[in-house]
Amino acid sequence: MTETALLSVRDLRVAYRTGGGRMVEAVRGVDFDLYPEQTLALVGESGSGKSTLGLGLLRLLPRTGHITGGEVVYRGSDPEGTDVLRMEGSRLRRWRWSEVAMVFQGAMNAFNPVLKVGDQFADTMRAHLPRQRLGKAQVRERSAESLRAVRLEPGQVLDSYPHELSGGMRQRALIALALILEPRVLVLDEPTTALDLLTQRAIVDMLQELRAERGFSMIFISHDLALASELADRVATMYAGRIIESGTTPDLFRAPRHPYTVGLIRAVPPVRAGAVEPVSIPGAPPNLAQLPPGCSFAPRCGHATDACEATDPALRTVEARPAGQPSHEAACLHWESVRLDTAPAAAQDGTPNDAPAKEVAQ
Amino acid sequence: MTAIAPGVAEPALAAPAPRTDGVWRTMVRSKSGLAGLVLVVLITGMSYLAPLFVDDHNPVDAQNRWQGPSGEHWLGTDHSGKDVLKQVVLGGQTIIYVGFLAAVITLGVAVVLGSLAAYYRGRLDSALLQLTDIVMTVPAVVLLAVVGAFFGLTTPTTLALLLGLITWPVLMRSIRAQVLSLKEREFVEAARLQDLGNMRIIFVEIVPNMAGYILINFIIAVTNAMYALVGLYVLGLAPLAGANWGIMIHQAWTYGAIYLPEGRAFILAPVCAIALFQLGLVMLTRSLEEIFNPRLSKG
Amino acid sequence: MTGEPLLSLKHVSQTFASKRGDLPAVRDVTLSVARGDVLCLVGESGCGKTTTARMAAGLAKPTAGTVEFEGADINRMDRERHRAYRKAVQFIHQDPYASLNPIRTVFATLSAPLRRHGLAKNRDEAWEQASDLLRRVELTPPANYLAKYPHQLSGGQRQRVAVARALALNPRLIIADEATSMLDVSIRVGVLRMLTRLREELDVGFVFITHDLAIARYFGAGGRIAVMYLGEVVEYGATADVIDDPRHPYTRALLSAVPDVDPGPEGRRDPGLRGVDIPSLTALPSGCTFHPRCPLFVPGTCDTAAPALRAVPGAGQEVACHVVAGKAGDPDAVGQPAGSGA
């Protein structure tokens, strides 16, 4: 693992314009570095800002969304790095697919329903590689190769319309399309959420193999902790538009130090033997337009004290590691007393309840 | 007389819960919506409150026929020497009354029949659809002429009733389409699972969800009914008793006001009154559409 | 199984007509549930679990077979009994954003069934009972919620309101279709725990449809699970037996595919399937419909005869598999006509 990050994000902020002309911040100052051949998982629930962050990185936000601050530096072939937020027009478009590609959740919407899959592969290649003057046969050969890599039968898929493929096949075709220009970074936004367990398993295993083979980096956005733990070297938990804990996969799953990460892990009932009783987090995810003062997790947190309502803690180092290796960091005043095996006070009382969410959820 | 065919607003089905607290604010914030509301309120207020303050005595004055605007007669006089301004101020009542009443009838029939047809489908649905076909093929003007000849369209209420009973089919079909889609929603299924009763499900659970759509179409129906009514007066199919904007235009036309420079005010005044009122209504619908159909609003 | 079955599905099938041919969504499913029982229907999308639930709830008529409530066919009952069935069997939808009328307050939603069925005679009584219902689903104090509209509530709160509505008519059976799958992870368990408490306190039976085996294991503890694949039940038995000791190769594959936070020393287990893609319902494979993907596939047996559910030696559950039931290679099984089980 080299020591220069491929993608560096500093204090990135994204806000949405809402009715009434107000701005609501969905991403509130996010920092991270993505190193070559690394997979970073962004984990969070609805409203955590994880998808907005993914779209923001690629400058694919909807019209109401704006990057209001921060820096995204991409160091591909140019070691100096390019400021992604300053890229415009055709340069941005070319960068977007050939250097950093994205796979969306709804594969149906990502394909044009009236074009055959093969034509969409050809269009993408022609738009991004105009100088290579690829012939028809070359385009088809490259598409077929890419499809075989995701274990699809090219002859069948290239001549089909998107609706003729099953959900799992479409999602794999989309991954093949994202990889066709051999990008260095692949951003996957809940790529398996709409899919069945067995299909999900196949896609996750396939992504692992492809990454080992081709050496790209991934940003894997998901609400599913367990899935993230299988794919990622590094995990960042997001809550209310911030990264509240980040570290290596074992850091976060074996020794989490933020009460929210602990809560998320404990909230999932296990499927295998040796069951621990799952415990839900009281309350509901906050409304970004009306965040509580101080730490935004405080109203749902069993460790919260008055200090938590006064300060919004920044990430603190739990365990420092040399550059290039992710340190374990948590944004919690009480991280030293947070442990996976010691249940916080609020989770211990018998009736988890949505009611305390009143001030949060309105 | 194409004005009789009512326009139908874009479906506003996607609207989430009507943001009741926000409706007023959004409307006031949108300049055209506010302007439209002010226009409609002003003209309606003028037509209905003026009789309380203005002496409705407007005598024939043979000495002062076709006078241009003057200090005494701000908008001049007509072919019989009557004051034009007074006629305009007092002549809106009937038009507005008929417009609103006809719209209420159209909408009432359309909503009730449209919802029933969509909810029950089957024979009732096809029978009602055939009925709309029949009503839509009847030439409205001819029917009005015939009815007028037999019964005499003596009161504005009869006029409104007739207009309302002719114009409902198009709206009924679009209400039916809306209900067809709404009734597949899960909350309707939930109500059915609880055996809440069909009438209740239709009129308490489903129809109020179209409130925005119905309101917008109500305003469109008002504009359509008013144009239709004015058209009837201009063609002379409705009884020319009293004074209203439609009758004024008819008289201006038949007495050749258009050829007299002094008569221009007489023909332009009612036309402007109608146009302004319609403009107000249209502006109002535009901003209501934005409120109830967030897809149309810009961010 | 405890006591008389409250609701039973007897050999029900449902075939939808489509442009590409008939879609046999559910084929010959027999299941039953008694008071206070819990039955989880588990499977991937398109396996027919939701269609089965909708037939049980009377939302769809089976094209073959019968749905019986207290021994009487629900599609042939007189009005009176049908009304009793309607009250006794309630349904909870997956999406609490769609299943609550956006323009009606929580009170209006809860009071409608109470007033309609004469459980509350006036507004005050309805208010009182609606408050009790909200307390049951842990939305306290109720006064904070009764006047609210759905859009003012969080997803978890909405789903609790939907549960309260289902409880309004004192049902004996609740059919829940993926009732927690749209909720955030952090609040899902809270809703499940509440449902479990209701089951114990009110002795309500549950038919719980889910694609999530962990949820089925948690909520279905002490009850039974039916694993469905392409419209048929392939494994059926006590929750503990099926999840902890799965016998059907499909159930085994599903369980090994569940992502795990802490995979343990042996690492991830490979489901070992021979094919990734689920066959289309319009072109079902011959014999056992799982055979094209099955790691235990025995040519000549699995692709010719459809296996029926039968008890497996040494296990508590029933499994529809030639190989597991020890019938592979048995000349009798091969000789069975292919359509006999379906």
UniProtKB/TrEMBL annotation, chain A:
SMART domains: AAA
Lineage: superkingdom: Bacteria
Cell compartments where the protein resides: Cell membrane
Biological process (GO), any one: peptide transport
This protein's name: Oligopeptide transport ATP-binding protein OppD
Annotated NCBIfam families: oligo_HPY
Gene3D superfamilies noted in UniProt: P-loop containing nucleotide triphosphate hydrolases (3.40.50.300)
GO annotations of cellular component type: plasma membrane
Main location: membrane
Pfam families, sorted: ABC_tran, oligo_HPY
SUPFAM superfamilies according to UniProt: P-loop containing nucleoside triphosphate hydrolases
InterPro entries documented for this protein: AAA+_ATPase (IPR003593), ABC_Ni/Peptide_Import (IPR050388), ABC_transporter-like_ATP-bd (IPR003439), ABC_transporter-like_CS (IPR017871), Oligopep_ABC_C (IPR013563), P-loop_NTPase (IPR027417)
Domain ABC transporter residue range list: 9-265
Gene name linked to the record: oppD_5
Keywords: ATP-binding, Cell inner membrane, Cell membrane, Membrane, Nucleotide-binding, Translocase, Transport
UniProtKB/TrEMBL annotation, chain B:
UniProt domain ABC transmembrane type-1: residue ranges: 96-285
Main location: membrane
Pfam families according to UniProt: BPD_transp_1, OppC_N
Topology of this chain in the membrane: Multi-pass membrane protein
GO terms for MF: dipeptide transmembrane transporter activity
Gene Ontology, cellular component aspect: plasma membrane
Places the protein is found: Cell membrane
Keyword 4Fe-4S: no
Highest rank taxon of the organism: Bacteria
Keywords linked to the UniProt accession: Cell membrane, Membrane, Transmembrane, Transmembrane helix, Transport
Transmembrane feature ranges: 34-54, 95-119, 131-151, 201-220, 226-245, 265-284
Family membership: Belongs to the binding-protein-dependent transport system permease family.
The protein's name in its UniProt record: Oligopeptide transport system permease protein OppC
Organism the protein comes from: Streptomyces smaragdinus
UniProtKB/TrEMBL annotation, chain C:
GO molecular function: ATP binding; ATP hydrolysis activity
ABC transporter domain: residues covered: 7-255
Gene3D superfamilies: P-loop containing nucleotide triphosphate hydrolases (3.40.50.300)
GO biological process: peptide transport; transmembrane transport
Family designation: Belongs to the ABC transporter superfamily.
Keyword terms, alphabetized: ATP-binding, Nucleotide-binding, Transport
Organism: Streptomyces smaragdinus
Pfam families per UniProt: ABC_tran, oligo_HPY
Signal peptide stretch: none
SUPFAM superfamilies for this protein: P-loop containing nucleoside triphosphate hydrolases
NCBIfam families hit by this protein: oligo_HPY
Name this protein carries in UniProt: Oligopeptide transport ATP-binding protein OppF
